[in-house]
Write a structure and sequence with these properties.
With 562 residues, the protein is an alpha/beta fold. 53% of the residues lie in helices and 10% in strands. The protein starts with a helix and ends in an 8-residue tail after the last helix. It binds one RNA strand of 75 nucleotides through strand 7, strand 8, helix 13, helix 14 and helix 17.
Length: 562
RNA sequence: GCUUCCGUAGUUAAAUGGAUAUAACAAGCCCCUCCUAAGGGCUAGUUAUGGGUUCGAUUCCCGUCGGGAGUACCA
């Protein structure tokens, strides 16, 4: 039931449409005021009356019924109280019927949303800075699928550039096949770092030559490159598995090597390409932006050139309704330029390209720097969180089976949640202190709440208490919980609309807080009456379902016990 | 310089233009003969600054201050 529409249909005020009234209906800051409220200030001018008077009048006229039980005017607000049992019944039935699908919808109608995220660079291990794009993208992928879209996850590999020439040169000078095979990506990265620190003029020249060899299809150079790529992918896939991240495509920059020329031709045809300082550019001066570089003065393509080709390819291949780029705000200008160039090329779908920008990660001692060794590797953060989880479990619940498995869910969950809980645009200063804190507004809190609920339900089953569709008018704590659960579907929609998984993360904590208040205030198994116990068990089960759905959208597992 | 983002308790943050600005962490104090204390309760403490728009601004606009990012051949 859409309560806003229901209320709006029963109100006539100042010639406003029902939609406008429904839109204006809010939720009061304090539940003791009511469940819904209509601020009457907007009507004051048209009706030439004070908001307070209008509210009084509307309150007197409003036909209370079995859905909206009472109406009261206060401070220019019209406050509505819904029938608690009615809302509870509707919400519980809907959760019970839909189960793990509760909160999903078909609003996407099967339309495609491409999501470009994580985008690993060959030969570069993940540090903590790669976490945001990976888990934000991974969560958006799930959220859009949940809402009936067809999400296409794209890992736009960073597999093109002169750095790979450098890498091969470094390997040729200092590398050892066995060591690299054994050391994997960190061994490769060490070679690259060493090159940047120690390379001579001569080696720089070699690096450029190796890059040329890769480009011209030289067998040996390509074999080395492919080997580095394999080692990189083997490494990231392990991490993706732990984070529950998947992709539908690994088409990276190299994939577009042969797809750039047509774009350049098209730019030329459309008269957008001009020469400046020896380079080919698209002039964006009229739009207040620096030029978009398409070809360097030596004829080589650039980042923007490949992104243009990639966007066109994706539109052609997937016919997306939207294409999201989950990339740090550092690249705001780059995407503004690329999107603008596509618009100038007459691609009407350029408006469907969205740069989902997020904040930067630094360390307490400042910006990360691989060269200076100021770096926090992602796998280290994950292992430390999992270890901490294991330690806590061993201490608090020594008899728990599957300690490793639970520790993995808890530890990984904490890492993921830490990156998804706040607005994505916020910068993050990483610290182990914060990462390892499992108290308060964390995934651990939500998981713990789930474990409590599971435990109650388990004990009920053990005692042979059957599931029922018992319903009672909820008390305050019960009703606050019901309202929280009822809000989940619109939370998911809001998360998708704003490309903001934090909405779901915040929902999970809020619902968990409401459950814990209920859990403390209302005895479930030892309720006073059987009907009360049955209703509370029903509410507990529904809470568990919804919290699971929320955490699943974030890519976080839910242990039954912990 | 220009462009752009950000500025809320000691800290990290929340708040489609709405009522007394909301949580968590840290601090102090309480609560396990009772469904998991990774929990609950209590105390104390916040919108950088000056204008403007509005019945009403943390939110929108302009300025100032402070911080981040970007600003032509890296990605």
């Amino acid at each position: 039931m859409d309560y806003r529409a229901y209320i709006a249909a029963r109100i006539q005020a100042g010639g406003l449409s029902r939609e406008e009234i429904a839109e204006a209906i809010t939720v009061p800051p304090d539940p003791s005021l009511g469940d819904y409220a209509l601020p009457c200030f907007k009507f004051a001018k048209a009706l030439r009356k004070s908001p307070a008077a209008i509210a009084e009048e509307l309150a007197a006229q409003y036909p209370a019924d079995s859905v909206i039980e009472s109406v009261a005017a206060l401070n220019g607000y019209l406050n509505f109280r819904v029938n608690r049992a009615g809302l509870a019944e509707e919400t519980l039935l809907s959760i019970e019927k839909q189960g793990s699908e509760y909160g999903s919808s078909d609003m996407g109608g099967g339309k495609v949303v491409c999501i470009d995220y994580s985008s690993v660079n060959i030969a570069k291990p993940f540090h903590i800075g790669h976490l945001s794009t990976t888990v934000l993208g991974g969560s958006l992928y799930r959220i859009f699928n949940f809402l009936g879209y067809r999400a296409v996850g794209i890992n736009h590999l960073g597999d093109y550039g002169t750095q790979f020439g450098k890498l091969i040169a470094a390997y040729k000078h200092w590398g050892d096949r066995e060591e690299v095979q054994k050391g994997g990506i960190h061994a490769i990265n060490a070679l690259y770092v060493r090159f940047n620190n120690e390379a001579t003029e001569e080696m720089e020249r070699e690096a450029r030559e190796y890059f040329r060899l890769i480009e011209s299809g030289d067998a040996e150079a390509n074999a080395l490159f492919e080997w580095f790529k394999e080692l990189t992918l083997a490494y990231v896939e392990k991490i993706y598995e732990r984070l529950h991240i998947t992709f539908d495509s690994y088409a990276g920059e190299r994939f577009y090597t042969d797809k750039m020329q047509p774009v350049i031709d098209e730019l030329e045809e459309k008269g957008l390409l001009t020469e400046s300082q020896g380079a080919k550019i698209v002039d964006l001066e009229p739009y207040g932006m620096p030029p978009c570089l398409i070809l360097r003065s030596d004829g080589a393509s650039l980042y923007a050139t490949r992104d243009l080709a990639a966007a066109i390819y994706r539109k052609k291949t997937y016919d997306f309704e939207k294409c999201l780029y989950v990339v740090a705000y550092q690249q705001n200008l780059h995407f503004k330029q690329v999107f603008k160039v596509l618009e100038l090329m007459g691609k009407d779908w350029a408006k469907d390209l969205v740069h989902v920008a997020y904040g930067m990660v630094s360390l307490e001692e400042g910006a990360m720097s691989t060269r200076k060794g100021k770096v926090v590797w992602l796998e280290d953060v994950i292992s430390r969180c999992v270890e901490k989880a294991y330690t806590v479990i061993a201490e608090k619940n020594p008899s728990l089976e599957n300690k490793e498995r639970v520790a993995e869910q808890v530890g990984v969950g904490a890492v993921v949640f830490g990156a998804l809980y706040n607005n994505k645009i916020k910068d993050i200063v990483f610290s182990y202190d914060k990462a390892l804190n499992f108290d308060g507004e964390t995934s651990v809190y939500v998981q713990y709440t789930c474990a409590r609920a599971s435990s109650v339900l388990f004990k009920a089953r053990e005692a042979g208490i059957a599931r029922t569709d018992a319903l009672l008018p909820p008390c305050d704590a019960e009703f606050e919980l019901v309202k929280a659960l009822a809000a989940f579907p619109e939370c998911v929609v809001s998360a998708a609309k704003n490309y903001e998984p934090s909405v779901v993360a915040r929902f999970a904590v809020d619902a968990a807080q409401k459950f814990n208040k209920f859990y403390i205030e209302c005895k479930i198994l030892q309720a006073e009456t059987e009907a009360q116990r049955a209703f509370r068990l029903r509410l507990t089960e529904a809470t568990l379902t919804v919290l699971k759905n929320a955490l699943t959208l974030l890519g976080i597992g839910v242990p039954e016990k912990m």
